[in-house]
Amino acid sequence: MTEATKKGQTIELDGHDLPAHCPHPSMPIWSAHPRVYLDLAHASQATCPYCGTHYQLKPGSVVSAH
Asked: Quick check: 62 and 31 in contact, CB under 8 A?
């Protein structure tokens, strides 16, 4: 079982991982749901409305403009 398959798991992302989306690439295909993009640029954390996986930026991450 990967870290992302546990409900309520927190996945830390760097600025270069943005735009953030769920399911995360590390999730197995069998647990996939429709892709949803998460806004981490303003709040630095978000929760997937489908699976409950929590995403947050790593401390000190730099968010660059696209």
From this structure: no
Which residue bears the tokens 């730099």?
62
CA distance 14 to 63: 8
pLDDT tens digit string along 9-66? 899 999 888 899 999 888 888 878 999 999 987 889 999 999 999 999 999 888 776 5
Q: What is the pTM of this model?
A: 0.76
Within 8 A by CB and 6+ apart from 21, the residues are: 35, 36, 37, 38
Rounded-to-integer distance, Cα 24 and Cα 15, Å: 15
Q: In 10 A of CB 23, how many CB atoms?
A: 20
Position 55, amino acid? Y
